Amino acid sequence: MCTTENYFVLDPRGATFSDLIRLLFSSDLRNRRFIHSSEDRLEDNDPCKFRRRWIIFVSIVIQKLMILLRKPLYFFGFSLGFWFNLLYINGGFFMILPNLFKGKIIWPEETSSTFASLNGNLDGRVELDGRIERGSKRYKAMLSIMASKLSYENINFVSSVLHNHWKLDSYEETPCHKSALKLGLL
C-alpha cells in the first residue's frame, strides 16, 4: 500500500458500524480492515490507548460523514463560488438588481479569465509586492504564496495573472509547462 517505512492509514470505506463499535472496546488494532500500518504491533500497554482508539474512531466517523455529504458540500461550494463571482463581475451586491432590470447582468463562466475560485475571491491579491527585491528570500516566499493561491484557479485566470500582473510572458518555455501540456494537464 505505502512505500514508506512508517505509515498509519485509515480507510473509512472499509469500516462498518460494528467495526467502529468494536474499535472502542477492543485494543486489537491489527486485524482491522480499515487500518493499515507499518507497525507489526499496534497495541501497547500505554494508559492512553483508549484515547488513541477514540481519536481513530472520531477520525473515521468524520471521514465517513464527509464521504456521505460530498455531493451537498460540492453543490454548496460551487454555489458559493458562483455567487461570489456573480457579485464581483457585476460590481457588487447593490449593482446586481439595477443590472438585472437593465438586462445587463453578466453571468460568470467557469473558464473565463475573471472567474476566481473561492480562495481567489476571499483573497483577491494578484499583484506581487513591488517593494521586495527580486531574488531575495522574501521575494521567493511571496512568490511561493501567490503561486500556491494560483494553483486553485483555472488556466485562463492563471494566464491572465501571469501576463497582465506579473509580466511573465516566457512561462510557457519552462520544461514543467511543456510536460504538463504533453500530459494534457493544461
From TrEMBL:
Name assigned to this protein: Uncharacterized protein
GO annotation terms (biological process): lipid metabolic process
Alphabetized GO MF terms: triacylglycerol lipase activity
Organism: Brassica cretica
Source organism, top-level taxon: Eukaryota
Transmembrane portions of the chain: 75-97
Keywords carried by this UniProt record: Membrane, Transmembrane, Transmembrane helix
